[in-house]
Amino acid sequence: xxxxxLAFHSIDHVEFYVSNARQAAHFYRSTLGLVPLAYxxxxxxxxxxxxxxxxxxxxxxxxxxxxxxxxxxxISRHIERHGDGVKDIALRVSNAQAAYEEAVRxxxxxxxxxxxxxxxxxxxxxxxxxxxxxxxxxFIEREGYKGTLPGFRNIENPPSAPDTGIAxxxxxxxxxxxxxxDEWVGFYRDVMGFSQLTHFTDQAISTDYTALMSKVxxxxxxxxxxxxxxxxxxxxxSQIDEYLSxxxxxxxxxxxxxxxxxVATVDALKTAGIDFLRVPEAYYTELPARVGPIDENVEELxxxxxxxxxxxxxxxxxxxxxxxxDRPTLFFEVIRRHGCKGFGVGNFKALFExxxxxxxxxxxx
Length: 365
Hints:
Order of helices and strands: EHEEEHEHEEEEEHEEEHEHHHEEEH
Structural class: alpha+beta
CATH architecture of the largest domain: Roll
CATH superfamily of the largest domain: 2,3-Dihydroxybiphenyl 1,2-Dioxygenase, domain 1
Number of domains: 2
Number of strands: 17
């Protein structure tokens, strides 16, 4: 039995601060196929904010807005500075009190001391610590809790949502400023007990114009993976620089969503209105020689712009969306792993050149 209080079970949910939670809920339902599960707001006795919880498979997104600029000023300030973005990557633990105390003992900055909720569904405990930028981690204890979240009303007969095949969160990527990647790698190692899975240098992640560096941190079970990116010196403004400028500092760059059928998922997302990055057709001409045999038809992957990479464990398929909001900040990755434990290093050059083409269109390269 693991007695480490920071032995994380899973990502409980991801909370976004958004300018209009009801409309954001409609967007994520109609595009990603996330089903509305629960709501909190004026109708449930909450006077300062409105929140919608959506989910499918093991994915849970919590969308929260202030009801007025002054009712929840911390949320209003977050939206004013960052636009719509991720506030909280909430992690499931066995004992939130013990996890919080151990994290603070190891040097974490407290955001919220453990708070206990008791209702008809059971006992629920939440505590929070700070991480990069304005992002936080909440520790969620819900052993035996039968509800969704305290103070929320379950949504009966929710509106239909397309079946996109999204099943789980594979990893969540954070962008930090130049020179701060190792600081946050140290935080996840020394405070959270994570280990470094891999390291990508600016030589591996570069084009003729821009570069970045990345280190991937994972928890003991390997279920939770957090790559940390920082910009590297280049001839022009990198995608990380663009993100930091428009987000107003460090934050979550993208969330990778796992599926068991990436072709069907991409088709469903495109039908729903999600736009994806495209790489040149020459990428697929060279693909069989680079990655070897795969189960999928390369022509079908090429039609959709799905990328492929291989490591010693197997191969993966991945594709990246355009930003989900007008600011070029948060986007999504769709990923299907066939044994591969990597992150698509063989795709980095083609992918980053595609990103640079989009940056040029925005006048930000």
